[in-house]
Amino acid sequence: MMCESTIKACIAKLGKKGIEVKLIEYSDGHAGHIQRPVHDIDIKKQSTEKKEKPDYLIRLNKNHDANIQFATLAHELAHLFLGHLGFDKFLNIPDRRGLSHMIKELEAESV
Question: Domains in the chain: how many in total?
Answer without folding.
Answer: 1
